[in-house]
Design brief:
- The chain is of the alpha/beta class.
- The chain has two domains: about 180 residues, Rossmann fold (3-Layer(aba) Sandwich); about 100 residues, Putative methyltransferase TM0872, insert domain (DNA polymerase, domain 1, Orthogonal Bundle), CATH 1.10.150.
- Helix content is about 40%, strand content about 15%.
- A seven-stranded mixed β-sheet has the order 3-2-1-4-5-7-6, with helices on both faces.
């Protein structure tokens, strides 16, 4: 399928890849960003690509200078050591899921398609799924997920309606869950800019894949992996992710005091404000509209980040 990479020219601008350098695409997907980086660093530069989804991973035939790994970027430190990948000049995190997940995965990523409630990128049969959360978790825990990860104002009502519905029969499909959400949300709030199920599905996806915790782990690992002067670029798609990235960057600029009393940070922030898609890009790729890019340059490898 055709994959349109988000903010591609901006990614290349801030990563600034040059021939012979080494980079990491921590969210490789179908390689929209990765193959563009690989072209820039030829003929000898190497790219380490990390892809969590095994189906996507198996569909890629990596060329000679691409090392492709089926794993989570939460394990970036271990991955780099295992493949002896060093002298890293830049790392990219594109936190959005692909159009393939919505249109072809069949795992319930779109509430507009009647599919099983999976919402998992998956690394094996032990991966938790959304239907397990919906059908097995206590009402209070479901409400907490919807509030914390979806910022859903009606989290309590929706979780109450879910528990009442599952007493009648298991909730197994996206359309079944959407119908419950519609009943839970007051009528006057059902005609907003976004679909009433948007926040619930976002929350479940984040919970299923432990996205926020993994992002913190991946960013912390990047600080240990990058060479001095290396670039870190992160594209986020909702406020929770962007808040973590913003906080991480800010904390890494506020290092310990030097003997002269001046703070020495680990990062130099390259984007004073997040970079967003142009109107032209949004017209070509509407799913890019919520993207925000932040970039920074490593000064030192002495990480002072804590959760």
């Amino acid at each position: 399928m055709i994959h349109i990479p988000v903010l591609l020219s901006e990614v290349l601008h801030y990563l600034d890849p040059k021939p012979g350098e080494n980079f990491i695409d921590a969210t490789f997907g179908f390689g929209g960003h990765g193959f563009a980086i690989l072209e820039k660093i030829g003929p000898s530069g190497k790219l380490l690509g990390v892809e969590l989804d095994s189906e996507i991973y198996q569909s890629i035939q990596p060329p000679k200078r691409l090392i492709l790994v089926n794993d989570s970027y939460a394990n970036l430190g271990e991955i780099v050591k295992e493949h002896n990948f060093s002298s890293v000049n830049g790392i990219l995190f594109d936190l959005g899921f692909s159009s393939w997940h919505i249109e072809q995965s069949g795992r319930g990523f779109s509430f507009l398609r009647d599919e099983p409630l999976g919402l998992n990128y998956g690394l094996g049969d032990d991966q938790i799924t959304a239907d397990q959360i919906i059908n097995q978790w206590p009402e209070q825990e479901i409400a907490k997920i919807l509030k914390d990860f979806g910022e859903e104002r009606f989290a309590g009502r929706i979780s109450s309606f879910i528990v009442a519905a599952r007493h009648q029969k298991p909730i197994n499909t996206t359309f079944e869950l959407v119908e419950i959400i519609r009943k839970a949300i007051p009528q006057r709030f059902q005609h907003q800019k976004i679909h009433p199920a948007t926040r619930t599905f976002q929350a479940l996806r984040i919970a299923v894949n432990d996205e926020l915790s993994n992002l913190k782990k991946g960013l912390a690992a990047a600080m240990e992996i990058l060479s001095p002067g290396g670039r870190l670029v992160v594209i986020s798609f909702h406020s929770l992710e962007d808040r973590i990235v913003k906080h991480f960057f800010r904390q890494q600029t506020e290092g310990p005091e030097s003997p002269r009393g001046k703070e020495i940070g680990n990062l130099e922030i390259l984007t004073k404000k997040p970079v967003c898609p142009t109107d032209a890009e949004i017209a070509q790729n509407p799913r890019s509209r919520s993207a925000k890019l932040r970039a920074a340059r490593l000064i030192s490898n002495c990480s002072n980040y804590s959760n």
